[in-house]
Specification:
four-stranded mixed beta sheet; alpha+beta; 16% helix; DNA-binding; Adenine-n6-DNA-methyltransferase TaqI, Chain A, domain 2
Length: 121
């Protein structure tokens, strides 16, 4: 849907993003240490909490980043369990998507706080 309502422009996610990637549809091989896997339980109220991270090994990590490597400023959207939680990837975090997540890479022309707020309705 494109157009205008009152004085507000309406755009689709495809218009707002350089990249939209669904997560791998598999459970990572969990390890006690290694590389961080984002889980839906880490995403709440617009924030990413990795105080109790989950990990996988390098081989599984590489499989999980084939579609996209999460970069600082990317938005992760949970699509179930719970649905609709949103967070932004912070600077310096090396991670991969877990399950039931979508990665959105907004165009740089859109302000970071605005793009996250638009998705987190």
């Amino acid at each position: 849907m494109k157009g205008q309502i009152m004085n507000f422009e309406i755009n689709t996610l495809e218009d707002m993003c350089e990249l939209i990637v669904d997560c791998p549809h598999s459970t990572p091989k969990w390890t006690d240490k290694g590389l961080i896997v984002l889980r839906n339980q880490n995403i709440k109220s617009g924030n990413l909490d990795i105080s109790s991270p989950s990990y996988t090994h390098e081989e599984d990590f590489q499989k999980r980043i084939k579609r996209a490597v999460p970069l600082a400023g990317d938005i992760v959207f949970t699509r179930e369990a719970p649905m609709g939680e949103v967070c932004r990837i912070p600077e310096g975090l090396k991670c991969c998507l877990g399950q039931r997540q979508v990665l959105l890479r907004p165009k740089v022309t859109i302000q970071p706080n605005y793009r996250q707020s638009c998705i987190q309705l």
